[in-house]
Every structure is written in structure tokens, then in C-alpha cells.
Amino acid sequence: MLIILVQRLGQMVFVLFGISVLVFLIFFATPGADPAARIAGHNATPEMLAAVRHDFGFDRPMPVQYALMMKRLFISQDLTSFVNRGEAVIPEIMAGAPITLSLVAGAAVLWVIGGIAIGVAAALTRGGITDRALMVAGLIGVSMPVFWVGEVANLLTQSRLHHSWLFSWVPPLGYTALSEDPFLWFKTLLIPWASLALLYMGLYGRVLRASLIEAYQEDFIRTARAKGLSETRILLRHALRTSLITFVSLFGLDFGALVGGGALLTEVVFGLQGVGKLTFDALQNLDLPVIMATVMYSSFFVVGANAAVDVAYALLDPRVRYKRG
Amino acid sequence: MSQSGGTSGGPGAVALRRLARDRAAMVSAGVLVLIMLACALAPLYARLVARSDPFRPNLDGSVTIAGQVLDILQPADNPLHLGSAPIGPTWHGAYFLGADGQGRDVASRLLYGGMNSLLIAGTATLICLCLAALVGVIAGFMGGWIDQVFSRLLDILWAFPVYLLAISLSVVLISQGLHIGPFVIEADNLLLPIAIIGIVYVPYVARPVRGQVLSLAQSDFVMAAIGLGVSNRRILLRDILPNVMPTLIVFAPLVMALNLLTESALSFLQIGVQPPAASWGTIIADGQTLIYSRPLVAIAPGVAIMVVVLALNVLGDGLRDALDPRAKLRVP
Known about the structure:
The complex is a heterodimer of chains A (325) and B (332).
Chain A: H1 2-29, H2 35-40, H3 46-56, H4 62-75, H5 89-124, H6 129-142, H7 146-160, H8 182-215, H9 219-226, H10 231-270, H11 275-284, H12 288-316, H13 318-324
Chain B: H1 11-21, H2 23-40, H3 42-50, E1 62-65, E2 68-71, E3 73-75, E4 84-86, H4 106-142, H5 144-159, H6 162-176, E5 178-180, E6 183-185, H7 191-200, H8 202-217, H9 220-227, H10 232-268, H11 280-288, H12 296-323
Antiparallel strand pairs in B: 1-2, 3-4, 5-6
């Protein structure tokens, strides 16, 4: 077990290093215009350019630039924006992080519950009309752009159906901190959670359905039946339990896609001032230091989360534990 | 392998016949062809049916619908007629789906945008598959340190959230364009989004291809070829590539579906297709400010994306059943 842990940590550190080098190269070594000009923004004065050059050490060799960058991002955390003069970037990310985490965590809960419900329902009615309808709906779910789903949700809940009994409880767009008013926090986030979860729910239902059907062909299910266990018990205690392992490992990977992509777009549409919205605003005025920092922090978070899921996976599944150990 | 349509029992022909029996896949293919044709006819539609330039702001203009002259900028629908909104859907030739925030014909822009979206997604798919095949085959076949280097690189790209990678590449390239030696690619060139989207999904295809090549390289027929003293080049071309092809074909529609969604997201974030050019993503972004007054502007391109991606996914499922029931692509 310890070996797996060390191995996984080593792999994580390597990937983190790789990603940081990649991001550094993208932002500072892409052939083309002077990187200083990119960072200083469109209407930079010569003095600003000189300041950027000095600040980021562009007159020094690449490894030094890289080290300088990493230091400013993670150790001294004094990276500043040039477009919004002198605004420190890292505190802004830290301020946005709770909002993004609230969004992602809630969506993930809905998405897992919904995925399990869909998968179980489809597997139980295999071949029937419910199964088909659920699978088609799931496919439609993954076929929609997440920001568009958000816009349509806004249209319905904020405007067209807002005065009906169904959505009259939906508060205006914005965010209320959990610590401020937990109930309002829940209400404001419910629609964003739902529209984000909608995309993945169907996909996870499909995956779970497939592995449930596979599990039902295993010997241990036949044994359970032979022992005379009830169908519900077989489903919940035997089939679902093995199938959930695939589900969990997949979840770790898509969680990254959610933090890096889905959440960003959802925040923009619902006006939640999280890390994604911060990135979006920086994209609008090409504020590169902010984008670089959000990309770096988000991907580090994702890689860390993935490593955690992998370790949990090894703990859950003895097959993995013994194979790798 | 390539006796398509023939009655002989080649694997390609068998797969095609199997695909032809798959009704859902055939309907999807038909829908895709129709949409592509419609988008290809965008210039004709703009000239003959909509009769306006979909790339020039036209808020002060007016339009004649069924003998009535209407201003493009209409008073808003609210009871007091406060403010104004671009003309809504007329359901006639001109401004069939209404006008966007700059008074441009949404239906025309939808077709032009579809042309760009499909062109970008399609070309990026080709790039992605070629790169993935190259990397996967080289890494899997050469083994040793070459495999190590490529595999570690793929590990890193795999762990990097796709959208964040695409955003980083886009924002750097969109801000100043790309200059490589004497070649300059301007920021509004479609090649930039094509290249970016073509790169980001490479690990998702290269990894399974590498795995497949790795097991092919250990297979009896490749061993036999090596024993006969066949050159590496010939083994790659005659034994490995034909076996990897079905995998790539199965991946093609699925990757294109992902590409289309990625393109729309980047364009929505305004780091994909640059104005005044359109793509389905930019039209959704244009429609965001009009969402409560003229929701159709944002809804129409979203429905278009949904239909195309759905058709591609169904077609991909059909191809997989027809060609290779084992291939799997994770949809990130």
C-alpha cells in the first residue's frame, strides 16, 4: 500500500512539473511577438514593457525565467496584473475559489446521484422503453454545450417561467456565500448545479448501466441468487458495489474536466464570480498573468484531486491494490 | 480492406454492410450530410433569400416583409415598450430567425457559422487523428526510450484539463497571432483554432492507439514478418497501419463531436473564431445579451450544435459496432 502511495505521489509531482513547464512555454516561448508585449496588454507604454521585461526576467536564460515565474506564482505569490495595473492575482484566485468549489462540489453530488439513479433504472429495465428513453436522453445530455444549457436555464427560470409556481423561488443571478445565508446559497446554486450535472448525469448513467449489466453475468451474482438473496439486496450489495468502482475512477478524471471547463463556462453564464469568471474577464482584456495563474492553480488542483481519487480507488478495490502493490 | 461496396467478404465491405443495416447511424449520417450541405450553401442563402450582408451591422436599416416596411430596431416587447430590441423572427425570407444585436440576419449567420464550426471541427479531427496515429504508432512500435518519452508527454497532456490547455494556447495566439520565421498567421485566421483544437485531444486517441500497436507488435503475424526479415517500414505499412485504421475510423466522429463542443466553447469565450466571422459559439455569445428579449438568437445555434454532436455520437456508436466492438473513447 505504501508503495502505491509513493508511486502515485511521484507520478503526481512529475505531471505537475510537466504541466508547469508546458504552461510556462506556452506563455513565454510561443514563437511570435515579444512575450513582454503579450503580458503588458494592448496599450502598453514602452516603460511598461521595460517593467515587464525586468519583472519577468526576460533578459535572463529560460530556466531562470521559469524559476522566477514559479516563485512568483506559488512562493511569494506577488504576481500582478498589468492590464488592471498592479492588482495582485493570487488573492483574487483565493477569493474566487470558494465559489468555484461550491459550484463544482454541488454539481458533482447531483451528477453522481443522478448518474446512479439513471444507470440502475436503465439496467433494471434493460431493453425496455424506459431504458431506451434514458439512454437517448443521456446521449442528448452530453451533446449540449454547457454554457448554452445555462443560458436556456436562465431564460426559463429568470424570465419565461419565473412567474410560474415552478421557478418563482429562483433568486436573481449572483452568489451568496454559504457562511452568509446557507439557504440562499443553496437556492442560488441549485440551477447552476442542475445545468452542470445534466451533462454528465446521462453519460454516467450509460457507464453504470454497462458495468451493471456486465456485473450481472459474474459468478458471484449467480452465487448470491443461489443463496436465495432478494433481488434488491443483490443489486445494492453485490452488483452496484462492484460497478461503482469503475464509476469512481471515471469520476476522478471528469472532475478535472468539470473544474477546468464546465465550471468556467457555467460561472460565466450564471454570473458567479469564481475562478472561471475571473479567467473569463481576463480573457476579455487579454490579461495574461491572470490567465496563467488561474490555469496553473486549476490544473494543479485537478491533478491533486485525481491523485487523491486514485489512492481512494486503490483503497476500495483489492484487485488494484494487489496488482500494483 | 478498401473494397468498399463490393460483395466480397473483405473486412471493409463487411463493416459497411453492417453499418448500412444500422438505422440510427444511417439517419445520423443523413442528417449530417444535410446540415453540411445547408451550411455550404450559406453564401447563396445570404444573397438570394436573406438579401443582406450578414457581416455588416445594420441596426438603422429596415426590411420589407409581405409588403410592410419594418425597422430592424423594434420597440421592446414589454408592456410599456421601454427600450428596443432587434427585429424578431419574421418567418419570411429576410430575417427568418430575426436579427442579432447588430441587426444582422441570424439565419444567414447561422449557416455561415455552421460552415466555420464544421470546417474547424472536421479539419481539427483530421489533424488530431494523424498526430495521434503518428505518436501512437511510433511509441508503440519503437518501444524503448522513444516510447518512454512519448508516453510521459502524453501523461502530462492527459492530466492537463483540455479546456485550460486550449484556453492557454488560444489566448497567447489570439493576442498577437503566430509568427514562425517568415510565416505570419494573423489572429483571425481559422488555422489557429483548428491547430489548437487539433492538438488538445491527441492523448485521448494516441493512448489507445499506442496500446493497440504495442500488442500488435507482439502478435504472431508481426513476429513472422520480423522472422522473414521484412523491413520495419513494410511491417508498419502492411501489418500495423491497416490494423490501426478501424480504431481511427471509429474515433473520428467521436473526436469531431468533442471538437465541435470545444470550438463552440472557445468561440463563446471569444478566443476562437474572431468577429466579424461567425461560428455557432460566437452566435450563442451574441445571443447572451438578447437572451430574454430575443432568445432565438442563442437557442438556434445551440440546437444546431446539439443535433450535430448527437448525430456524430450515434454515428460513432454505429461505426464502433460495425468495425470494432472493443474500441472505447472516454468523453471528457
